[in-house]
Amino acid sequence: MRYVLIAVGILAVLAGAVAVIGWSLPTHHRVTLRRAYRATPSALFALISDVRAFPSWRSDVKTVEVLPEDGGRLRWREATKNGSPITYALEQSVPDQLLVGRIADEHLPFGGSWTYELASDTPDVTTLSITEDGEVYNPIFRFVSRYVMGQSATIERYLDDVAKRFPPAAIPSAPSSGSSSR
Question: Is the Cβ–Cβ distance between 169 and 38 less than 8 Å?
């Protein structure tokens, strides 16, 4: 019985430490990663803007349901292999250059937006930069996001999935990644 109490005490101290560290982390984080692909801007934009096709190339997406538009904005619900469905809204779209999507569910323990920017110095190589402006409201989830999963994990998986469709290319004189919290 004594060992059980010690184990419970240790678990309580660890849980408390995780909560305290989580509370000390900022709610908002920003992460940007970029990768170049052997693709034209229009081909890459076609891939990343076709939400109905996400299950065919994104390894974490099981299904996509396109929802009625809200104020003229595209909305869709993604069901992933590891979680509950999440509703997204397209906030901005500039063909072959820019997409901005945001989590539209208001009652999740997290939220945020993703900005997809395409740039091309040559006709056959396009650089895709993805910036996640994330918000994690629950301190335990903040701890997990920062120290267990990694705040760039979603973007890295997305870029890897794009690489299954378009071969990666070298990025001329551009940093490969960066991240910051505020």
Answer: yes
Its domain, for residue 57, covers 2-181
Write out the two tokens for 10: 């240790």
Give φ, ψ of 60 to 5 degrees.
-95, -5
pLDDT tens digit at each of 182 positions of the chain: 888 888 888 888 777 876 777 677 888 999 999 999 999 999 999 999 999 999 999 999 999 999 999 888 999 999 998 888 999 999 999 999 999 999 999 888 899 999 999 999 888 999 999 999 999 888 888 888 778 777 788 999 999 999 999 999 987 654 444 544 44
With a CB cutoff of 8 Å and minimum separation 6, the contacts of 170 are 36
The number of folded domains in the chain is 1
d(CA 140, CA 109): 10
Q: CA angle, 150 as apex, 115 and 55 as ends, to 5°?
A: 55
Within 13 A of 150's CA, how many CA atoms are on the CB side? 10
Gyration radius (Cα) of the chain, Å: 19
CATH number, position 111:
3.30.530.20
- CB crowding 86-124: b at 16 or more within 10 Å, else e: bbbbbeeeeeeeebbbbbbeeebebbbbbbbbbbbeeee
d(CA 85, CA 19): 26
